[in-house]
Write a structure and sequence with these properties.
Length: 475
């Protein structure tokens, strides 16, 4: 410590203090504990800004000058009133601990529903019933609105009646086909009988002709048999014609049956179309969700081009985030953990990256990814702005120190460790993952070491210090 020409004052950098002031306050800080020591350090920062020597790791040239100054400058200590020996400078310190630390990316996004649809009516008409409003929770298939369907009811009755008529026509025609088939059978039986008679009479006439030549019978007997044969032959022609007519009747009946059956199918299709149209008057929820907007009220006229309401499924929800393309490639779908916060909810939501969208915006060179978050209490709402932290790598049980406890000089990192004898010593360290205000130490420090976290401005390497241990804030 440099002493001024004035016997009653001491220089500290460019500021002066009364003799014994620092020593008395340091001893008082030791007795009274951490709170007074912090006040002493803060007061030193106010009255002696010119002695600011160090800064957090990675702060550039100022940090480099600080580390050099910490090795070269005289310790900021004062002589005791009796012994004249240096007094240990009080500093805030922490024990080096172990814990989990994460390599992460920070970005933003927007909350979207897992499913979201605008419901439109399929028919025009007056809304006679609306069962939901904004905030209503519905299940799949629930009736949300009803449109006047009196016209559809009348059309349904007509279609049902037409179907009944078509069915009756088919039934009647089936009977006619069966009747025609019976007629063909009878005509064929009659033709077969006549054909047998003709065959017998033909044989009889041939025998009688032989007997007539021999003079055994008269001409009259032969003529009678010939007349019977000719009559039977005429009957056979008529029976064959009847068979042909009956067969044509079957074909006609069958064709009429097919036509009646086609009319029946048409009647059924018409009935189904009317039923569907009538069913369209009843608007039902396509999935379980919450009504976020109702566009019309009961009594209003609805038409297929006008929205009725918006339905969104909010459990789970999607959070759509954006990253530059080089960082987008670091994500692993179904494996990368994401933690989401919103400005309006004092809670962190944990989810997983579900997918990475394939397209990259050629203007911004950014791409989108999707995080799925469980939302059973529906705290997250669509449209919310989301802050997203993506955890790419985790070091478990790592040696971890506060970021403010590190110094930087010529590309090296260092910390001020307090020896068991209370001496400040500089220790070079090798760092790993940086997570906000915590840094992983790969080499140079061990768990249980005491390092200075506040008060680096007032000490130099090799100087005695009084470490006031502060508990590390857990992440």
């Amino acid at each position: 410590m440099k002493t001024s020409n004035s016997p009653d004052r001491h220089d500290v950098g460019s500021a002066t203090l009364p003799p014994g002031w620092v020593a008395r306050n340091a001893r008082s800080a030791t007795r009274q504990g951490t709170a007074l020591a912090r006040n002493l350090l803060l007061l030193g920062l106010v009255i002696a800004p010119a002695i600011l020597l160090t800064g957090p790791a990675g702060n550039g040239p100022a940090a480099g000058r600080a580390l050099g100054a910490a090795e070269a400058a005289s310790p900021t200590t004062v002589a005791g009133p009796a012994s004249g020996q240096p007094q240990a400078t009080p500093v805030i310190a922490q024990k080096v601990t172990t814990g989990d630390i994460h390599l992460q990316l920070v970005t933003s996004g927007e909350v979207e529903p897992a499913l979201g649809v605008d419901l439109f009516p399929k028919i025009s008409g007056q809304i006679v019933q609306f069962n939901v409003s904004e905030g209503s929770v519905v299940n799949e298939g629930d009736l949300v609105a009803e449109i006047d369907h009196r016209i559809q009811d009348t059309q349904l009755e007509q279609a049902e009646a037409a179907l009944t008529v078509a069915q009756a026509a088919v039934d009647l025609q089936e009977v006619m086909v069966k009747t025609a088939q019976s007629g063909v059978t009878a005509a064929r039986a009659q033709a077969d009988a006549v054909r047998a008679q003709v065959t017998n009479l033909t044989a009889s006439r041939a025998r009688l002709e032989k007997l007539h030549k021999e003079g055994a019978i008269s001409r009259q007997q032969l003529d009678d048999v010939t007349a019977q044969h000719d009559a039977a032959q005429a009957q056979l022609v008529a029976a064959t014609s009847n068979v042909n007519q009956a067969t044509d009747g079957i074909l006609s009946a069958q064709m009429n049956l097919k036509m009646k059956q086609a009319q029946l199918v048409q009647a059924k299709a018409n009935l189904h179309a009317v039923q569907v149209t009538r069913e369209d008057a009843f608007i039902k929820a396509p999935f379980q969700g919450i009504v976020t907007r109702r566009h019309l009220d009961p009594g209003a006229m609805a038409n297929p081009s006008q929205k009725l309401l918006r339905l969104e499924k909010m459990n789970p929800v999607k959070v759509i985030g954006t990253l530059v393309e080089k960082n987008l490639l670091l994500l692993q779908p179904e494996r990368t953990e994401a933690r989401v916060r919103t400005d309006s909810i004092a809670e962190e939501f944990i989810g997983t990256v579900a997918k990475i969208y394939p397209a990259i915006d050629p203007k911004t060179r950014t791409g989108q990814f999707e995080v799925i978050i469980d939302n059973p209490e529906r705290k997250l709402r669509s449209g919310m702005f989301a802050n997203i932290r993506l955890f790419l790598e985790t070091a478990k049980g790592a040696v971890v120190v506060p970021r403010d406890a590190l110094l930087a000089h010529n590309g090296d990192r260092a910390a001020i460790r307090v020896t068991p004898e209370g001496i400040a010593e500089k220790v070079k360290v090798r760092t790993g993952i940086v997570q906000e205000d915590r840094v992983e130490i790969l080499d140079g420090l061990q768990p249980g070491d005491t390092i200075v976290t506040q008060g680096l401005e007032f000490i130099r390497v090799g100087a005695p210090v009084k470490a006031i241990i502060q508990q590390e804030d857990q992440p």
